[in-house]
Amino acid sequence: MVSKEAFLPVATEESADLEVPMYSPEVPPSEFGMSSAHNNNATHATGITGEHEQHLYCNYCCDTRRAVLVVNVISIVINLVVLLVVNVGFNFIINNPDEVEKDMTEEEKANLEQALHSGYLEMVEAMTDAFLVLSMAMHGCGIFGALKFKKWAVATAGSAYAISFVLHLMGGSFINVILAGVLGYPHYFFIKEINEGIMSDYNYHNVAHCCGGK
């Protein structure tokens, strides 16, 4: 008769020494910096990570990373326009003093002539150009910092807005003071969220917002 008992393999010396290969494929990172395996198991954020709540620009609009990108692009464009206008204006004054002096008083004409002969206008133009170029470089750092999640670069761009805030405050230009504050404040919250782990290359796709939505 055939036995109905289950067949149990008997261990041998060869089976004891046999090593079963364990293969764990390395999955390349996705466009968000996470592997697809991690993405499948990821817990999607709802704007709150642990005890830290995500901040949206003006409490409604885009996330702070996109806000930093947008405001720095806007600032670079504005500085380029100002740079063009300043150079065209100074060159016109330097090359066409007679046209400029038509509606001036004698005292104003004398002051302009003195500025032209002393090189004062050229110096002011050069200083203005240097300030605008430096400002654009700092805003460029802000764009780089937002793209690569680099706090030092974001802080550099934030410093440009802080300097602008102080200068306009000292000059009494309160509209520009408000503008500098509105454009500058998302840098603080972006750095804060990087420190809290809300903003990172691996987690950004979970917290990305645009105009109040994903």
End-to-end separation: 71 Å
Assess the beta-strand content as a share of residues.
under 5%
**Number of helical segments with 4 or more residues:** 9
Low-confidence stretches: 20-49
Counting helices, strands and paired strands, the structural category is mainly alpha
**What composes the largest sheet?**
2 strands, antiparallel
Features of this protein?
elongated; transmembrane; transmembrane helix; membrane; two-stranded antiparallel ribbon; 2% strand; 214 residues
Walk me through this protein's architecture:
Keywords: Membrane, Transmembrane, Transmembrane helix. The longest helix is centred in the middle third of the chain and has 32 residues, at 64-95. A hairpin with a 2-residue loop joins strand 1 and strand 2 (52-53). It contains 9 helices and 2 strands. The chain has one domain (55-207). The chain has helices spanning 13-17, 36-41, 64-95, 97-100, 106-118, 120-148, 151-171, 174-196, 204-207, and strands spanning 48-49, 52-53. It is mainly alpha-helical. Strands 1-2 form a two-stranded antiparallel sheet.
Task: Give a short synopsis of this structure.
The protein has helices at 13-17, 36-41, 64-95, 97-100, 106-118, 120-148, 151-171, 174-196, 204-207, and strands at residues 48-49, 52-53. It is mainly alpha-helical and 214 residues long. Strands 1-2 form a two-stranded antiparallel sheet.
